[in-house]
Design brief:
Number of helices: 11
CATH architecture of the largest domain: 3-Layer(bba) Sandwich
CATH topology of the largest domain: FAD/NAD(P)-binding domain
Strand content: 15-25%
Largest sheet: 7 strands, mixed
Shape: globular
Number of domains: 2
Mean pLDDT: 96
CATH superfamily of the largest domain: FAD/NAD(P)-binding domain
Order of helices and strands: EHEEEHHEEEEHEEHHHEEHEEEEEHHH
Low-confidence stretches: none
CATH class of the largest domain: Alpha Beta
Radius of gyration: 21 Å
Distance between the termini: 49 Å
Length: 421
Amino acid sequence: MLQQHDRVDVLVVGGGTAGVVAAIQAARAGAQTMLVERGSQLGGTMTTGGVSFPGLYDAWGKQVIAGIGWELVTTAVALDGGELPDFEEDYGREHWRHHVRLNGPVYALVAEECCLQANVRLAYYELAAGAERTNDGWRVRTVGKGLRREIHCRQLIDCTGNADMVAMAGYERVKSGTLQPGTLMMKLVGYDVDALDEAAIQARYEEALAAGALQPGDYQHKAIPFIHFLRNGGANAQHVFGAESSTSATQSEANIAGRASMLRLLRFVRCLPGCENTRIQYMAAETAVRESYRIVGEIEVTHDDYVTGRVFGDAIGYSYYPIDVHDEGGVAPRHLQRGVIPTIPLRALVPKGSRDLLVAGRCISSDRQANSALRVQATCMATGQAAGACAALAARGGVSPGEVRHEDLVSLLREHAAIVP
């Protein structure tokens, strides 16, 4: 097996929503940067997971998250001939109307191009197998197809979504006893929803559920008629209970369960009057996971911090989304009070007691309720950019992230179009 050795200033592990932005920011700030991704493309949940409607970038009539993530999103939308939502329109509690609809494959192309233009070194099909402290940073081992790699880095950024590097480095992470369900994103076509008999379809749905032809979670909403599933082509309307991505075994189980659910749905829908020609137009490559591990950071963002809009002294960005815990009953978002815009402290990106290590994305330090809102894509992009900027400054100054001057970090982030409190 081929052995390879690399030395960089900043190593980002995980090329998903946060990792792409972190790597581009670190590289644009002058750091030699490498990005390791277990799959074949960048974008994570937005591409491989099929959740190609990131949000929320605005709150109460003004933009609160911008920067590199926003640059990638708007570039992808324009290249695909799409349109941005009308952010001046107040949709009240219909927050999904402010999600940005984009083409996932186009986003993956744009993200890769921007990484290459910034001189980010990309390593696909590689999994981290270990992390050890050195005198001047970290030694990370990865395993790929026919390749073993040893990477020496001054700063390490964990964007795995599961805090994998944090665990390998020996720092604490936590996981709730009951996890939010995942979803296998899909798109069914081949019928005219306006020509369907809603009452008859609902009766058939309830019969199928009672008979076991469909199972709980195949359609996530208990209180909303099944016609809603058909109206949206099944998009984001399924729940895969217990979906977890922290090991290959649990991700495999989530994928298998998601696909079995989709097959049940396809067979059921094709038996409905008017839906005989239904077909699958799109299915994501893997089940998207909402919840896994969270780090124990230097500070934990709590539910109260989030819903009151606490402004932290070391805030590196904003977040905006309802409290959004999915469970067996579906989801009932709890919206923020008008005018509230939560902030994110740098300390929530720093594993407690660590040096030269940052985390970005859904596994930042937060309680379960706050995390259900912090996990969304726009916020992950904001934390990714902050982590990339902080790591670059730390590598340049020969210090740990917690020792970077806050005013220097804010200045660098603003230089790259991020919005900082």
